[in-house]
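Q: What would this chain look like folded?
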Amino acid sequence: MLKALNIKLYPNNEQINYLSQIFGCYRKVYNLCLSESKKQYEENNESNFCSLPSFSNYFHKTLLKEEDLFYLKDHNTKILKDSINNLNIAFKNFFKHESGYPNFKKRSNEQKIGLYKEAFSKKIFNVENKIFISKKFGQIKYRTSDEYSKLIEKYKNNIQRVTIKKTKSGEYFARILIDTQFEDNKQLNKPKNDIIGIDLGIKDFVITSEGETYENIKIKRNNKDKLAKLHREVSRRKKGGSNRNKSRKKLAKYYEKL
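A: My prediction, written as structure tokens:
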């Protein structure tokens, strides 16, 4: 069974600078492939460019050879190609009518990169709460619960994927996907006697089979005045100014808290 563990990262200034660069390159590849797919459809009425092979071919034979995009070669191509996979999934969901047409990625939104086994070091964790992804990233300080630390240490050889994320408020996190199949199979064989039924509702958030009731705390409704005030503060600030960016981060942080 796969388990996803979230840990908080505390990169230093040099690491923040590098993360900013790779986030930017990841975003650039995604947006250029999306732009090219729209262009192909408008000029040639071709929707075949939305496929993964077409994106991959465009990335290797066009983007990596353009002089203006020389900086893409400074980063692991396996990381940058993950943006192509995400764009391909976005198009698949669009054609299945599960979501809208893919949007261009913005620097002000949440930033994210994904690394599979081939893109990160096998010695991904070490002592003193530092994560070592590769030489480019360096040793990044992190913090998590004792439970997650024990799971990571136990299954560090079974890590399938690492996703590094920067939230709208400027916080950094890593999501570690680990395979715990062997241990889970042992747990399934153990008899379980304590069973409780849980019903989720609107009026009451949770009602258990033992008669316990937990009220709906209506998070957004009870904080609507504060949210409205923060939204007004953002809209009053001058676009592109540092004060608007500070207000935007404050609003994003409040949403994350909720």
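The first strand starts at residue 2 and ends at 10.
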